[in-house]
Amino acid sequence: MLGKEQFANAILTIRNLHIIAALKPVIDFRTELIANDEFMSRGGADNPTRDHFIQLLQVCDKVRRHVTHNPDSQPLGDKIAKAIDPNATVEIGDLPFGGDDIQMQSGGLVPVPFRLDGTDPDIPLLSQINHAFTKSNGMLILGAIDRVIVNWTRLNSRDRTRGITREDSMRMYGHYQEILGYLKMYLGDANRVDVAQVLPSQEPQGPSASPNLINEQQRDAVSGGST
Asked: Do 227 and 179 share a structural domain?
């Protein structure tokens, strides 16, 4: 199975079951997004909608943290801060042989159990999504989610049997931060915009019935007649 359209670059045969576990809440997040009628409105979404999706994003990030190989059991943020400190020195970890350091059995390749080729009605491609949705802020968030799905499958950790490296974990954390930024920037009552007009594509009489399009008869400013 190969992904199509926005999923064309997804690698759908991997070794790491933990990556598949991390994909599950992201797929749930995506399903909730495209099924929410708040995104049929170009004006924006309300506070409950924003808060709901922030909660779903937090679940995605919780799973990311659980599948991260972290033998020292220290907060990842502290590790990264120390790793980039120009005044720090290289040190052996506090628990170099504890936690995640037990050697596990090697595993075989497994297919990603999500159909990203447009055949699953619950995971539609962009070309299969309602046109009105594509004109809303939801489309921006959907694009970021789809990129997360693709990038999870492309991590170098996909060839590990279990766990993802801390570096791969921080890469995905960066993608989640981006989605959080979009949710806070574009959703919520304070970010609603007033949209008064109907899109030409939504005109019941067709796009040519919309004002100011090329097929409309124009009034002559001087004579008042039509041209």
From this structure: no
**Which residue, among 6, 13, 14, has the nearest Cα to 164 in the 3D structure?**
14
What is the domain count for the chain?
Answer: 2
Summarize pLDDT for 13-61 with one digit per residue, the tens.
Answer: 999 999 999 999 999 999 999 888 787 777 777 888 889 999 999 999 9
Beta bridge partners of 71: none
pTM: 0.76
Burial class (CB within 10 angstroms; exposed 0-12, middle 13-18, buried 19+) of 139: middle
How many Å apart are CA 96 and CA 64, to the nearest integer? 22
Task: Verify that 224 and 177 share a domain, yes or no.
Answer: no
3-class secondary structure, 159: helix
The per-residue pLDDT for range 77-117, each reduced to its tens digit, is 665 666 556 565 545 444 433 335 555 667 788 999 999 99
Half-sphere exposure of 209 (CA within 13 A, CB side): 9
Q: Which domain range does residue 26 map to?
A: 5-196
Alpha carbon 39 to its chain centroid, in Å, reads: 15
Distance from CA of residue 144 to its chain's centroid?
4
